[in-house]
Description:
It contains 9 helices and 8 strands. By secondary structure, it is of the alpha/beta class.
Amino acid sequence: xxxxxxxxxxxxxxxxxxxxxxxxxxxxxxxxxxxxxxxxxxxxxxxxxxxxxxxxxxxxxxxxxxxxxxxxxxxxxxxxxxxxxxxxxxxxxxxxxxxxxxxxxxxxxxxxxxxxxxxxxxxxxxxxxxxxxxxxxxxxxxxxxxxxxxxxxxxxxxxxxxxxxxxxxxxxxxxxxxxxxxxxxxxxxxxxxxxxxxxxxxxxxxxxxxxxxxx
Length: 215
């Protein structure tokens, strides 16, 4: 069982929201509502910054703001971030059934490692694949296939769950069973049903039923 990190396994939006609002205050700009920023977390730092600062894609200040944001985020990684509701029970059940689980994320190692350690998940995860471990990140399937190698499992016997189209694309290209996490950070302009996942769940406590139904 493989999980995307932000918006799938962990609810990290509260810490990103705090960081973005600190930057906005430093630039004498109004704070960003949580609901608006939450939708952009899985799209990455630049997407959050463009939304909060109302900047175009090619704005010259984006690289500078990105650096500021990530430096601040590194100091505020796991203050309010936590497992999504139902996820702790799911992980415990997987472990009780001796089903290994791991993480495949586009989040860099320097953020992934400390947040997993802070939440005491680092020793529980059977594998954790970050961008530094591969030559191509999701939606390329390389990171998922590497996770399979580390788990000594075939892709056809693996499940990948994520809250972004690149997660489902990567999982499908790796020939895994894919689950769309509808509880994640999805913009209202997106239609996750178009992602062509094998199944969808509205909340984490539905995942085990999907596993039992198909495996």
